[in-house]
Amino acid sequence: MTPELGFLPDIKLTDFLKQHTFTLSAEVIPPRNGAEQALVLGQIHRLIQSGAQFLAVTKGAGGSLRGGSLPIAQSIKERFGVPCIAHFTCRDLAAEEVENQLVDHHYFGIRNILALRGDPPDGQPNWKPREGGYQYAHELIAQIRNLNQGQYLSRVGGPSVTPGSQIATDFCIGAAVYPDHPNEIERIDYFKAKIDAGAHFGITDILLDVDAFKRFQDLCGKNGLTRIPILPGSRLLKTQAQALKMMTKFKVKIPKQVFDSLPESSESMPEEEILKRSVDRFLGFTEELRKAGAPGIHLFVIVDTEGACRALKRLVSH
User: Fold this and answer.
1) % the chain with pLDDT above 70
2) Domain of residue 119, CATH code
């Protein structure tokens, strides 16, 4: 295929998953605006060297100031030669801005998009979308699907467009999945809305309970929603103090037996022992997911690059 504007089109994630029985991937966060950008590139290099087969780049959570998702994703694809998923949030965008930014992604050869509504900024519980914006992620997914069909937004008062003259995009559309969502009906209805809107794959939020993943798989089966792969996302657990923060900030559910097995804090035992136990626990968790039929494990790195790299290396050697 001829490169578009000098940038190679990425491999679609759905095609990549079909070529592998179980994938290893990682998710990185762009540096805060104004921070050293070389740090994230060094982190990416380490993760790929350790065994990550593809990566994802987030948009900062909680409305944080973190630009750079697009150029970092493009760099992963071009410079490091592995597929990449670019997170795309529509929280503060009108539909016209969504279209313009998606076209930028397509020009750069980005093909894998995780389509998200986006978190409201921290401290703004009464947040509402701007006029012309989207309330739900499935609305963004539907817009990307339309672009894939060559259906662009019409410009009121703008120049006429000859039917068929606009080239369709070729995005592989991902959706966030919430197996631990407290309401079972909403849990499946939200996912169904995203599939019906055009999602091609799903990635869960932070998942630390294999049984929750199995229950969600069963729920999908009962509702005829097994046509797209769901990639479980997780992270390493080190201490009860860390686990409590995750449970509070991200509403993560952690099985009691897992929580009780963690040391209370980083002062409870030597750092190296905490890291070893954390990696061992993650490997056991990953093996259970593999047995449950998961297509891979998606490791949320956040700040623990060393632990993530050790886990990936161990998984590669197994």
Assistant:
1) 92
2) 3.20.20.220
